[in-house]
Amino acid sequence: MLPESKVGMKKEAKFLGVSRNILFTGLTSFLTDTSVKMVYSVMPMFLMSIGASKTTLALIEGIAESTASLIKALSGFWSDKIGKNKPFMIIGYGISALVIPLYALVISPLHVLGLRFIERFGKGIRTAPRDSLIAGSVVNEETGKSFGVQKAMDNSGAIIGPLVAFIMLSMLPGNYRLIFVLAGIPAILSVFVIIFKIHEAKRNRHELFTRFHFRDFSGRYYFFLGIIFVFTLGNSTDALLMVKANEVGVRVALIPLVYLITNAVSVLASVPLGSLSDRIGKEKILVTGYLLYAVVYYGFGITSSTGTIIALFALYGLYSAATDSIQKAYIADIIDKNKNGTGLGIYNALIGITLFPASLIAGILYDRVDSKVPFYFGAATALLSAVLMVFFRTGGNKRNKGAVT
Fold it and tell me: Measured by CB atoms within 10 angstroms of the end CB, which terminus of the chain is less buried, N or C?
């Protein structure tokens, strides 16, 4: 059953199957992710060229992502409190647009750390309010489809960005700084899309969520977050997948192209799976997604075949389409509309914070136990998450039936 604040929403005009806000929010994500992935697809090589070690690379990424995670919950609550999402999006995406070209000026890894910190801070500011705007702009309760559109466009940027960087490096080998400068163009365009094409999702002033209390969210919300925590604990950095691919015989130069298979499959499957989740239930799609992840990670653990690795990367894209956006859509379904920013912010923060120990556990298992063990661990946590999700769904169905008189 949907919260009362979601009942009776007026139908809005659709544009290419979704509301105008969702389409242009997706375009914003596409432009920014194109820009960001142009930079980060070459950043490790650039850092090594200016004297960074592999430990430094990991430290920069860990600090930056942890910062973004903590900010997401705060910005989500703040956006709910004032009833506005667009200012946070302008500031967050604007920070990225300003920072990215500045990478061309750095002369030491410390400078990169500072800029990366600021850029991820911007991501933390914008993510939960953006997701809240999507949830507030949904037409006809199609949350799965709406978040699926956003994810598909975001992942399209993750394909285009590295390809552009690859072409530029092929034509101008080693010219990383030119890539950084040009990468600022799509990021700047994304800010103009927000300013001129995106509108606030209307909220009544008396419905604003002005004071946070844990009891304001249901037990089902926290149970669902518990499932997300268990799953994310085994969802380590994708870098290990690429290391494994290299170990079984995929050449280093081809690994980025193999990883593009994941993003391509995710782009193709996100909208259909999102729409399907609106029809048959998001819990069913999530259980399927967790089981797919378990199969993929178990497969990475046992395989020594390059052909199997490629197939697993494709399945990994299908898992991504069946979980990432569906989880956000499901949270938007089970909480009140005026708490979307806070609820989605806590969710995003939980994932970001948990990814740090998840990657640490996987790295220790990989280096000190056996290269297969972190994949078996990930498969086990995913399988446990699927089982918990079945219980979660069963419990919800029983309560709904008990409420019918």
Answer: C
147 backbone φψ class: left, alpha, beta (φ>0; ψ -120 to 50)? alpha
Residue 322 lies in a domain: yes
Lowest mean pLDDT among 128-137, 335-344, 390-399: 390-399
List the CATH number of the domain containing 111.
1.20.1250.20
- For residue 174, the SS3 value is coil
pLDDT digits (tens, 9 = 90+) for 361-394: 887 888 788 889 999 999 999 999 999 999 998 8
Tally of domains in the chain: 1
The CA-atom distances, in angstroms, between 154 and each of 127, 147, 149, 157 are: 12, 10, 9, 5
Residue 6 domain-assigned (yes or no): no
Q: Each residue of 60-108: pLDDT tens digit?
A: 766 666 667 778 888 988 888 888 999 999 999 999 999 999 999 998 8
CA–CA gap between residue 121 and residue 65 (Å, rounded): 9
Q: Are the C-beta atoms of 125 and 88 separated by less than 8 Å? A: yes
Task: From 238, 222, 185, 226, select the one nearest 65 (Cα to Cα).
Answer: 238
Please give the helix or strand (H or E) that residue 14 lies within, else none: strand 14-15
Residue positions counted in the chain: 405
CA angle 70-76-79, nearest 5°? Answer: 140
Asked if the structure places residue 152 within a domain, the reply is yes
